Structures
1.
Amino acid sequence: MPAPSDPDLLARAVRLNDDWFGGMATPESVRWVDNQQSRWGSCSPGDRAIRLSRRLEGMPRWVVDYVIVHELAHFLEPGHDESFWAWVNRYPRAERAQGYLLGWSDAWNMEAPPGPDRDD
Ligand SMILES: [Zn+2]
């Protein structure tokens, strides 16, 4: 299955915003980036842009969606505090996705995905 294009990613992010954030974390752009060797995703809350590591490309949809949800939550809460995780954990597979990414982080020497019990 080919990786979703950037417009596909944006459409998914818009959908995730509707489903889990009540439309309050509207994204403007989502794109794959090659130059992100140590992080799974990042965002610029100012222009509501999300960047995803290309290493996510072949991963299950629910894992990629989790990373998008994580970045959308940063549009509402910049840090990784309790209110941030309250948003992220509305996504039902958040914990499973963190575990999935943690395994790959070790394999690829990437930063572990931040979790409620870890700082990053
Ligand atoms: Zn984060």
Note: The first strand starts at residue 29 and ends at 33.
2.
Amino acid sequence: MSVLLDARGLTKRYGDFTALDGVSLTVSEGEFVSIIGPNGAGKTTLVNIVTGLAPPTAGQMSFRGLDIVGAGPVTLARRGLARSFQLVNVFPALTVAETLAVAVCARLGRGRRFWSSLGADRAVHAEVGEIAAVFGLADRLARLARTLPQGDKKLLDVASAFALGPELILLDEPTSGVSTADKHAIMDVMVGAARRLGVKAIVQVEHDMDIVFGYSDRIVALHQGRVLADTTPDGIRRDTEVVATVLGKPRS
Ligand SMILES: Nc1ncnc2c1ncn2[C@@H]1O[C@H](COP(=O)(O)OP(=O)(O)O)[C@@H](O)[C@H]1O
Ligand SMILES: [Mg+2]
């Protein structure tokens, strides 16, 4: 299996506080990886560093064998790595269609000739329609993004990340703030979208253990900035220390 992301010894300090402490993470094509851990474990910090939003204090990272330390989110998106946010900020003045068009343009516009081509508008329009349909947003294209209910805002943020056409996508709590009943539907949409849109691997931060155990090939448990376990769902279930620390259940 071809390795997409290879991160070694990632450390992030804020002053005296160490948010990430020598974390290594490898993601290969075809994998669905969940990052779990209690609040403050460093999950969002890890996603931020891997996606170029914050620089690591120490450590190495490569994507498809190319060094990505110091590369910003725009460069990384161009190389095939995109993310969604735990706390979503929609563009307040844009409609759903316009929000998706920003991402579609970023992808299609990678080739300079695209902008001068006659079919550019039509191509963007068609892709926006397709992504919106995949994510169940097709009937809300003309709505201002800020007027959407919270669940749809999250979906729009995830859809925008998919619209960048990444090979690897990192989703920070994609179903937080969404009712339990809707979580599975959203996960099914995302997995289906990944298949249809050519996304090769998904990394998600997720608290809901039904979702984590139901969808993951591999689970990485973080605690106080360190990797406590990096194994299969069954491996996690059998690991009493992880179960006690991360899932908060008494050892039995
Ligand atoms: N910009 C920052 N400055 C100082 N401390 C931070 C910053 N970002 C995160 N932290 C701290 O790092 C720790 C890990 O945060 P975070 O990665 O958001 O945790 P998680 O996503 O696992 O809940 C927390 O204790 C948080 O307060
Ligand atoms: Mg977080």
Note: Residues 3-246 form a domain with the Rossmann fold fold (CATH 3.40.50.300).
3.
Amino acid sequence: MNFALPIRTFALYPLVLAGLALAIGCGRTISPRAQWGEVVTQISTYPALSDGHYQGQIAVSNLVAFGDHGLGTFDGLDGEMVLHEGTVYRVGVDGRAVAAPLDALVPFAQVTWFTPDAMYDVMAIDQKLFRTTMAWKQPDIGHVQAIRVSGIFSEVRVRSVPRQSEPYPSLDSVVADQQVEHTLRNVRGTLIGFFTPTAVGSVAPGGYHLHFLTNDRSAGGHVLDFKLTAGRIEVDDSPELRTLLPTLPPPSDGPPVGKPR
Ligand SMILES: [Zn+2]
């Protein structure tokens, strides 16, 4: 009898190993949507972007694992990025949208898997009324809200920015001196973006940050103003904001003299 227990235990090892293999196998089958569905993933921080850190941090092919909805920019601040229904578009200063190559690098982005928690059909609202309406319907409870507004727009004013070269200027100076604006009229399309609550602080762009893409996916940009004739607002409440910190170049003056490296 004394030998029976070890033998029986040993006999269970294959079952245990099979169970472990199954568990590992199951782990591999978790879809990105299931893993990241309620999370907004942000690449880099808004202060880093504002300071001119436009070096790409992640390839488009990897970014789309974290969501099918989002916005951002490209390496060197080369245009506005829109992620809509799983495809990443780049909008250049000509206002035209084209699908971005999968190996394009992204220095800053916010993305999530979009599953609306609330939707509102609206008519005849401009940007100011949109914000007032949303403050009432979707009060700031400290969560990030992914926002999608689709419909017919009598006007959308958008901008994009040209590619920068190093040493990179600050985002404020690029926007002030180099942004190019376009006004799209009587167009069907979608506003895509996020509301970031004040409680998040400066890590992310505060308030509403929206990009635009036409239904034929030929034009868009960072939204400066809009007038919606009729459409639908959809909101995906996101209680988790995950920030992947950027890898920045070391200070050009190196470590302080006399201090250990
Ligand atoms: Zn933007």
Note: The two ends are 64 Å apart (CA to CA).
4.
Amino acid sequence: MRPTGLPAAAVRDEIAAALAEDVPWPRVLNSICTAPHPVAVEAAHAAAHTNLGDVRIFRGTKRIERAAVALLLGLLGRPQGAGSLVSGGTEANLLAVLAARRDAATAGRLTEHPEVVVGSTVHFSFDKIFAALGITPVRVPVDDGLRLAPVSVEKALTADTIAVVATAGSSELGVVDKVDEIAAVVEPHGVWLHVDAATGGFVIPFARDIGLPLPRFDLGVDGVRSVTIDPHKYGLATVPAGAVLFRDEEVHQADSFFHGTPAHTTFLGTRPGSAAAATYAVLRHLGREGFVEITRANYENTRYLVDRLAAAGYGLIVQPELNIVVARVPNAAEVSRLLGTRDWIVSTSTRFDDAVRVVVTRHVTRDVIDAFLPALVAADHDVRAEVAAR
Ligand SMILES: Cc1ncc(COP(=O)(O)O)c(C=O)c1O
């Protein structure tokens, strides 16, 4: 640190210069996050000083968190449930697994080697969680549609199983597990079913409203005990805003998660009330209709991208269920790297070598797609020429 401070204007310039190095949103095609809604930015700014780790002080902010959670519970079919706003999908998934472990202990079913059944498309946040908690993941293969198959789940259940995780919108492929069918096989065993809807939670309810044939995945499905949903993704809130929601109020007691921390139902201690304010502001401002319109536009742009890809000769790895397009492009890793040097950010797949993945979120408009397609074709062409010359 310098002995003397810099004028605020100089610091502002330094920060502006750093932010100018970030890739601008219209070139970001790999992220489920987008520019937060202006009402979220305003609310976050107003609440920048707040800390939900101390609710004796920030009573009004806590009220906002409760109200945001109530809105999310209504969206996900269980107004009488409970939950917390957290830092994102990873923390939400962690808390759900902790609640499942506690539930197994309470029911006298917790063994020395607890297992959680997951599909091979489960998000990598679970790898961190299982490593941290000493839980063994039991990975079951997905079916031809890249979904967790209920019959494989049932076969994988053992006396050590404390939970099953289904995914409502895998981040890599945008595939939605048939949560209702999985719940039907899991529930009779008394095992906790967690649904990771970090990616799909702010899409599927609205996509169903516009008539798309996606399954129910929420707390209204019998047997679903907890759901992760992320306001900082398609919920247009500022980062870091995640949420974990539970079917039963009594699960959501502080010592369900961590013994001896009566005031906290989250992993983080000090945590931003700004994220709660942003989440609440967007939910109140857009209402269901606002989200439906955004979702409709995202799906229309998804269709537009698929058509443009087809016209350029690119097929798909999987038909998009969400607004995530996974195109079949040879040498995908190299194409992605080359696009990156040209300031186009796409991602690839851990499962398929020839997949370029594009998330068609709010900033990925037709204009962006029209600019991206020639860039993709050029990168593909250059990589093919380089490969042929080797
Ligand atoms: C399905 C899913 N689960 C969990 C996560 C982790 O969320 P976060 O990065 O907010 O911790 C993501 C992030 O993309 C995700 O898509």
Note: The chain has two domains: 8-34+288-389, 38-285.
